Amino acid sequence: MDDVEVRELRYFRAVAEELNFSRAAERLGMAQPPLSRAIRLLERRLGVQLFERTSRHVELTPAGNVLFTESAKALDAVANAVRRTRRAAQQPPALVVTAKSGVATELLRRIADGYPGPVEIRVSGFGERGGVPRDGRADVAVVGCPGDHGDLDVEVLFTEPRVAALPFRHELAGRSTLTCADFAGRPTPCWPDASAADRAYWSGQDVTGRPVTPGPVVRDSTQLLETVALGQAIALLPASFAEWHQRADVVYRPVGDATPYSLALAWPAGARDVRIARFVRTAVEVSEALPRPGAVPAG
Fold first, then answer.
1. Tens of pLDDT along 218-276?
2. What are phi and psi of 266, to 5 degrees?
3. Cα–Cα distances in Å, from 31 out to 4, 13, 118?
4. Is residue 182 classed as helix, strand or coil in its secondary structure?
5. 163 has which bridge partners?
6. How far apart are CA 183 and CA 128, in angstroms?
7. Which of 13, 146, 162, 218 could cross-link 223 (Cys pair, CB 3.0–4.6 Å)?
8. Is 46 helix (H, G, I), strand (E, B) or coil?
9. Residue 228 · residue 237 · CB < 8 Å
């Protein structure tokens, strides 16, 4: 079988997403007949039929569905390789690291000060950090653990307890410490695209096993705290979050049995870039010298 070309995979995905050869051709900026010929050639190369075609209908075959899933990974890998190659050609090639704003970016600044080379720090949003090293936009990311980082290498820098964020006049605010059972039946904020494991972790369900009561969807720390202050939800958060986000209308209380939160560095598994190894060593040394988060302001 001849090698399949990246161009052919892009053609295939356009047709698979549109399920219409005319619309796919228009989207690709080409005429329909060459696109149809390219798909037929791809099918001959693979020895399978990718689409069921009639005059009115186009549908993926089982083999087409498999290629649709697998081709996304292949095209992502090609795009990532191009990004990394172009960045490696920069002179000098700065190590790009990313984290969300707050304690993570402050930690990165301190690590960068001790790292013997140029470092570019980029601020990322919720859900981006692990994906950024995967797609080549950064070399290293600061990520929270636990989490699904299966295709990344991870080095934990420190672990901290978690606290409950409550409205100032909440019935639980008068207690000195709470447990995960106190979250049962109470709405907790929902992050977009969070996995079931993430939802369990951020609601205390991973400890209690009780059903999660979903609260409002939030996309950043400011929105989360507004939701808490309005009494729409209570949140289970890292202790460092409390130290960085003090408000008169929100109080924080320790949650004694909550699964701890860890801050870690993550980078592509198997990476052989000596700059990454040097940065990780520097990060471990710097983090060991820092005071550990955990003092919870009374609020």
1. 988 889 999 999 999 999 999 999 988 999 999 999 999 999 999 899 998 888 888 89
2. -135, 145
3. 21, 16, 48
4. helix
5. 237, 254
6. 27
7. 218
8. helix
9. no
